Amino acid sequence: MDIKIENDNTAWDSVFAMNKGVCSVYKRYQCSHCDKSFSKRSQLQSHIKSHTGEKPYQCTQCDKTFSENGNLTSHMRTHTGEKPYQCSLCEKAFTDNRDLIRHLLIHTGEKPFQCSQCKKDFRDSRDLKRHMRVHSGEKPYQCIQCDKAFKNRGDLIRHMRIHTEEKPYQCNHCGNTYSQNSQLILHVRTHTGEKPYQCIHCNKSFSQNIQLIRHTRTHTGEKPYQCNQCGKAFSISNHLTRHYRTHSGEKPYQCNQCDKAFSHDSQLKIHLRKHTGEQEPFPCSQCDKAFPKSSHLKWHIMTHTGQKPYQCSHCDKSYSDNRQLLVHLRTHTSEKEPYLCIQCDKAFSESSHLECHIKTHTKERPYKCCYCDKEFTEDAHLICHLRAQTGDKPYQCRQCDKAFTDNKGLIKHMLIHTTGKKPFQCRLSDNFNLIETKDVVKDGQIKSERNHKINMSEPNFEVKEEQIDIVIHTGILKDDNGATY
């Protein structure tokens, strides 16, 4: 074993520097394989095994091996279920004393380890060490089977299981196996219903700590992830990652059946259903509706239950969708339209509206019909168009046998049943029409009930509501001066 001692003075006393109650020790044992150094010889000896791959301690119940005897002892407890280290403040127990020490900091709120560059505080020195690599960009853990590198050793171990297809963590309830212990813990909670992470602002609880962190930001308004190109801030890190792609134009998710690529993995999943024919795989058990995303189904079910779990902290309004609450909260603040287009002066209340608007500048129409050559800026427009091609009308009226390709058509139709008449009355006759003004003017033409079509060549042509009434009866459109178009 090759051990290099940086300073062989046996009389050397360890130097301690106190910073927020943390002890910093002089590290005199340096690794000859990398630039790491340690305060104890035993720590260096353990570290050397990470280079040599030596794992002399083997589990007698499975084929796992470990570089240290203490790690084997902790691992054996996953087989026996033994958790000897119990928290004196709650009922939680742990297999490893180090896990208990970290857990106790949750009760005290203490975060003694501070980043010198951004002043973030951490409960664990290892968390701080990993965080520092975000600033330095260091990725010291290299995969030996591919060119990927990682900031954390645990990430490398998890990555290696992609190559080995190892899934050492098995569920005792159903037999499912997982490559990561954290995946198993989360899975087991689907059996037990355990939600150990509770919000201190409301009575909501969560099965994952990250879910609690994200939820808490809906109360605090914290947005720690900021874009360095436009200044926008986000509450979730992967939202920032997706946002960066609006600047770079990157589309890393490639369809393996055609040449289309997407900036979000969710967009690719929806697109792949167009190849398989499974466009709306999430059906409602209470009605005949189906949805392309599970989250859409979740929101829809609340229309049956009447549940509105998202309560405004400023007034008594509540919503079935968290996004609706976020938009509503802007009515209480000055931030009503925070999403600004960088190519014009338009602003939007939701990021999705901005994304759709940007396509009017780029002329991008990524959603193409597989039956004809039409292309669309939004997947929802393509879905409606496809229904016109296939004849699919999933929105059925419950009071008669009429069906519609989209929800908007059904809502307009339902006014006949609820009001007893067609709600849009013509000013020049007693006729009623279901078509709204904004639907009459389309593609540079006015379409009347008598199929009159008036072409409008002026690029900025505007039509008044009373003019539409006149066209329906006369087929003639005149301007304010009486000139005929």
In a nutshell, what does this entry contain?
This protein has 485 residues and is of the alpha+beta class. The protein contains 16 helices and 36 strands.
Hey, roughly how much beta strand do the residues contain? 15-25%
Q: Give the end-to-end Cα distance, rounded to a whole number of Å.
A: 93 Å
Q: What integer is the average pLDDT?
A: 75
Strand order of the largest sheet: 1-4-5
Q: How many beta strands in the DSSP annotation?
A: 36
Radius of gyration: 31 Å
Q: Roughly what percent helix?
A: 25-40%
Largest sheet: 3 strands, antiparallel
Provide the structure class: alpha+beta
Shape: globular
Number of helices: 16
Q: Give start-end ranges of low-pLDDT stretches.
A: 1-24, 432-485
Describe the structure in your own words.
Strands 1-4-5 form a three-stranded antiparallel β-sheet, with helices on one face. The chain starts with a strand and ends in an 11-residue tail after the last helix. The longest helix has 13 residues, at 407-419. The protein is 37% helix and 16% strand. It is an alpha+beta fold.
